[in-house]
Design a protein that fits this description.
One of its GO terms (biological process) is L-threonine catabolic process. The protein has about 425 residues and is α/β, with parallel strands linked by helices. Helix content is about 45%, strand content about 15%. The chain has 2 domains: about 130 residues, Alpha-Beta Complex (Aspartate Aminotransferase, domain 1), CATH 3.90.1150.10; about 230 residues, Aspartate Aminotransferase, domain 2 (3-Layer(aba) Sandwich), CATH 3.40.640.
């Protein structure tokens, strides 16, 4: 006889190995269902393989001939600049491949401190702190700075890393409508009961190519006793007269409290992010920001490349000044052809198409014509707002831009996106 209800358990007993296999089979079924749903929605994202250096002219696996790249964050063309590459090689030779440590144990070299000081000077701030990425900088900031007594007010279309960073903190959370200053003011009025109020916005919004109205944001922040945080990933290096970003572009450098940005776009394109702002804030982040405390230091080669990129940028603004005319050339020609281009005066030029499958198919046909662009669809952008995001680089020639427009017109007519 089985004691108690043990006989019932025996009926359902499965050997341990078989149980594990059953759980794995269940997981596979769930995952395949999710993947099939993505394919069915037309939002599957494939990865094309580049077989050359990054730049305006690249080579792509499986595609013959040279390809024009119009979708990199390589705004200033510094990813393959010979001086940037040489600086990376020198840092690799002198300081090694990596630190095998986080910063506070034995992972801080002189080049890390020098780059942080250079970033602070560039942005005209008191201090700066490096992270493996700007995603990490955004993940580390809000949790370390804000408490349940505080409030953060965030634009609804802020980058995912800002959204995730805010989720980690215990502050009261307010979301205002995109670029809607009346809604921000209403939220600031509601947030007056909190200790600190931090307005968080992208400087330039990466999916739409529009720019935050920082003058009005700073005016409201001053009126209601709030601080201003700006993510400058798609502005650092090329917006503003000397490439300092949207705060320089709009004349509010002395009114923005905190800037987070990246080394992985205009400033060499390798990796790395940072926070720059008041000295005491940076000191607090070194003590409390979890992505900083628990992540390996930036590799010396990355630090060397970024440092040289900043040197080039601070030495001359010639490259920066070439961006506006090239951006306007692409936007005006595309709009004249009948396309809708989101945003204004930013090198991010989203070609709005609406349908995810249309965006994906047009991008594939653009590649056949020698133009590398990518379709963006949900969940990267809202449903029904699929697009091909074109990005202009200082290294694109007028001929490159015209060839891209011609390909868009041809492919657009082929797919019925143009009459």
């Amino acid at each position: 006889m089985w004691p108690g209800n043990a006989w019932r358990a025996a009926l359902f007993w499965v050997p341990r190995g078989r149980r594990a296999q059953s759980a794995l089979a269940q997981l596979r079924g769930i995952l395949e269902g999710e993947l099939e749903g993505i394919r069915g929605a037309g939002t599957w994202k494939s990865e094309r393989v580049i077989t050359s250096r990054q730049g305006p002219h690249i080579r792509v696996d499986g595609v013959s001939g040279g390809i024009l790249n119009f979708c990199a964050n390589n705004y200033l063309g510094l990813s393959s600049h010979p001086e940037v590459i040489q600086a990376g090689l020198q840092a690799l030779e002198q300081f090694g491949a990596g630190l095998s440590s986080v910063r506070f144990i034995c992972g801080t070299q002189s080049i890390h401190k020098n780059l942080e000081a250079k970033i602070a000077r560039f942005h005209q701030r008191e201090d700066a702190i490096l992270y493996p990425s700007c995603f990490d900088a955004n993940a580390g900031l809000f949790e370390a700075l804000l408490t349940p007594e505080d409030a953060v007010l965030s634009d609804e279309l802020n980058h995912a890393s800002i959204i995730d960073g805010i989720r980690l903190c215990k502050a009261h959370k307010y979301r205002y409508r995109h670029l809607d200053m009346a809604d921000l003011e209403a939220k600031l009025q509601e947030a007056q009961k909190h200790r600190l109020r931090l307005v968080a916005t992208d400087g330039a919004f990466s999916m739409d190519g529009d720019i935050a109205p920082l003058q009005e944001i700073c005016r409201l922040a001053s009126r209601y006793g709030a601080l201003v945080f700006v993510d400058e990933c798609h502005a650092t290096g090329f917006l503003g007269p000397t490439g300092r970003g949207t705060d320089e572009l709009l004349g509010v450098m002395d009114q923005v409290t905190i800037i987070n940005s990246t080394l992985g776009k205009a400033l060499g394109g390798a990796s790395g992010g940072y926070t720059t702002g008041p000295g005491p804030l940076v000191s607090l982040l070194r003590q409390r920001a979890r992505p900083y405390l628990f992540s390996n230091s930036l590799p010396p080669a990355v630090v060397g490349c970024a440092s040289k990129a900043l040197d080039l940028l601070m030495g001359s603004n010639t490259i920066v000044q070439s961006m506006a005319a090239k951006t306007q050339r692409f936007r005006s020609k595309m709009e004249a052809a009948g396309f809708t281009i989101s945003g204004a005066s930013h090198p991010i030029c989203p070609v709005m198409l609406g349908d995810a499958r249309l965006a994906s198919r047009m991008a594939d046909d653009m590649l056949k014509r020698g133009i590398f662009v990518i379709g963006f669809s949900y969940p990267v952008v809202p449903k029904g707002k699929a697009r091909i995001r074109v990005q202009i680089s200082a290294m694109h020639s007028k001929e490159d831009i015209d060839r891209c427009v011609e390909a868009f017109v041809e492919v657009g007519r082929l797919h019925g996106a143009l009459p």
